[in-house]
Amino acid sequence: MPIIVNLDVMMAKRKMSLNELSEKVDLTLANLSILKTGKAKAVRFSTLEAICKVLNCQPGDILEYVEEGNKSQI
Question: What InterPro entries does this protein map onto (predicted)?
Fold first, then answer.
């Protein structure tokens, strides 16, 4: 999939665990884990907004578009 989720990178930069982020954005650990691993098929804007607010970042810091042929650059 050409959309890469860099949630783990932003969490590491903010020194925040998945459990802590889950509590702060009021999202289940399972759903947040699915998003973090890139297995989510969709994300609500309200969820993205809450994550960005807690991590003090922009949506582009979390989501990245990479063309299918350029996956080796990740």
Answer: Cro/C1-type_HTH, Lambda_DNA-bd_dom_sf
pLDDT recorded at residue 34? 95
Distant-in-sequence, close-in-space partners of 23: CB < 8 Å, separation ≥ 6? none
The CATH H-level (homologous superfamily) assignment of domain 3-62 is lambda repressor-like DNA-binding domains (1.10.260.40)
Q: What is the 3-state secondary structure (H, E, C) of 24-68?
A: HHCCCHHHHHHHHCCCCCCCCHHHHHHHHHHHCCCHHHHEEECCH
Tell me the per-residue pLDDT of 30-49, one tens digit each, with 9 for 90 and over.
Answer: 999 999 999 999 999 999 99
Gap between the Cα atoms of 18 and 58, Å rounded: 18
Please compute, for residue 27, the number of CA atoms within 13 A of its CA located in the half-sphere on the CB side: 21
Length of the chain in residues, anyone?
74
